Amino acid sequence: MSTWIIVGVKFLFHVPITIELFFSYILIQTLGILLIVYIMESNKEKQSLLYKIIRMEKVEVVSHLAASISHEIRNPLTTTRGFLQLLNESKAIPEAEKGYLTVAIQELDQAERIIRDYLTFAKPTTEEIESLNLKKEIERAINIIVPFANMNIVELSSELESCYIKGNAGLFQQVLVNLLKNGIEAMPSGGTLSIAGTVEKTLAKVTITDNGVGMNDLQRNRLGEPYFSTKETKGTGLGMMVVFRIIESMNGSINIESEQGKGTRITLAFPLNI
Ligand code: ADP
Ligand code: MG
């Protein structure tokens, strides 16, 4: 704009382009714009850094809490389970009432499972890293989630290529199951959940697509923050945090695309283990 104005002024009014004109119209404006852009960008960066630090601090607190809680709760659970098991074998208790004991034991097992599932992020270093067959792992996760999908009238479709990545099988299952579960929960009136496992150059990719409620930008940015859940009493808001942690420990990456009302696509990428 400044250049055109100067050219216009020169030709229309035959004004000579002096040094002052050059400075005031071209140099200062350009420098000014650069300066403003620079300030805006660095401000933005600072802001996002601040958010990151706040988020990391939260994760830290939760991890410490989780580590101690899981330890303290597991022990009494194990003891209780042992005594219930003994009672279950006792002859003094009528068969009809043993059903209650079985239910109690099952419920304890469920509680133990929840602790195990949600509290692994307290230990970010994966033990027993092995070579995982992506196709097999995804199939296993799908098998686990089938009853839940059926209950929600969600159809599962999968397209899987066989390849190998490095990681801990248990933790990787946790990632897949959490993501599949979220996908299903995002479709309260049913739909299709597609899962793809593909190889792209040096990366193994897992794509999970749902056509559910989706997220807005704010929700998408808060994903992975502890206790962020839109499911009220049904959600814990810990699932995605666990997912982020585990993927990080596997040197993988996660990409989330989502549109409110249309659905969500989550893409994981891991280095191939050849
Ligand atoms: P929870 O499932 O217990 O609510 P998560 O950490 O798994 O906790 O997920 C956090 C929130 O992210 C969910 O409450 C939901 O709002 C949003 N979310 C996660 N996955 C999806 C998805 N596939 N579609 C729409 N929203 C999602
Ligand atoms: Mg979840």
From TrEMBL:
Source organism (scientific name): Neobacillus ginsengisoli
Protein name per Swiss-Prot or TrEMBL: histidine kinase
GO molecular function annotation: kinase activity
UniProt-listed Enzyme Commission number(s): 2.7.13.3
Keywords: ATP-binding, Kinase, Membrane, Nucleotide-binding, Phosphoprotein, Transferase, Transmembrane, Transmembrane helix, Two-component regulatory system
Domain of life: Bacteria
InterPro entries: HATPase_C_sf, HATPase_dom, His_kinase_dom, HisK_dim/P_dom, HisK_dim/P_sf, Sig_transdc_His_kin-like_C
Bilayer-crossing regions: 22-40
Reactions that this protein is recorded to catalyse: ATP + protein L-histidine = ADP + protein N-phospho-L-histidine
Pfam families, alphabetized: HATPase_c, HisKA
Boundaries of every Histidine kinase domain copy: 68-274
